[in-house]
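worker-3 :: picked Pre-mRNA-splicing factor CWC22 homolog
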Amino acid sequence: MTREQNRSSSREDEQSRSKDNDKSQSRNKDQAPSTRKDRSRSRSRRRKGSRSRSRGRNRSRSRERYRSRERGRNTEHSDRRSARDGHDAWRYERDGRYDRRRGRSLSPPRVKEPSTADEPPVKKKKEELDPILTRTGGAYIPPAKLRMMQQQITDKSSLAYQRMSWEALKKSINGLINKVNVSNIVNIIQELLQENIVRGRGLLARSVLQAQAASPIFTHVYSAVVAIINSKFPQIGELILKRLILNFRRSYRRNLKQQCLTASKFVAHLINQNVAHEVLCLEMLTLLLERPTDDSVEVAISFLKECGLKLTEVSPRGINAIFERLRNILHESTIDKRVQYMIEVMFAIRKD
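worker-3 :: tokens ->
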């Protein structure tokens, strides 16, 4: 009995051992994938740690480099400052203004100036301009006050007196030229000759030209005034004619038709009054018809209407040449129909 019992117990032990081995094998099989996963996780962690460590090292290296650069800059600035301080100390030692032992300057202490904050600032007064000394004569001065001011001025060579006399002369000349017409031309000429027109010849020329440009209807009146003044003072007539020719040239260059018409009309009337020579008229007509345009031909025809009779009397050959040029322009037919009709009308006037 005992033997059989021992055998059965040994079998049972073997069976239990085999079961335990099977269980351990199955556990090992189950645990194998988990251990692989743990190994891969540990490897990735190691890699991340190594990367973070390398980044930290790189950052620390860059910080060290930046700090070393800043230290170098600070040392350079400190060297410069020390050099400046040494140079200043040497300069003060040389001048004898600095004491090394005491470290104080020997220059006298600055005295504080009394503060002027309480005192209000003084405004600078503008210099009052004398209305007489300004270019345009300044504000209006009543005649009584003007006479009183003139009486107060004793020095006739002073600037104020000369300016006042000049303004008075300009006003009188402008007033007389603006008042002139056919009926009162004799009285106006007498009053003009009483003024100092030799001194104010420029004022007279300007006022005559402005008045004629403003009202071309009275051109014959202004030309008569200029003719009378020219008979007494030829230099004044020459000055007016020169300025008139300059106005014509300027307006011709700038293609100003209306100003050319007014200036040529005044020149034509001065030719009729024997103030200007007929050669001037022929030169102006030649200039206008050299390169004919609608405007230039129109100005030439209006010029011929004003002084054509005088030209036929003085220089018939010149007026024949001018009309021959007009006939050629009409045959070329390069201008407007309206201007061609004006040329035909001009030939009819000459025939009549």
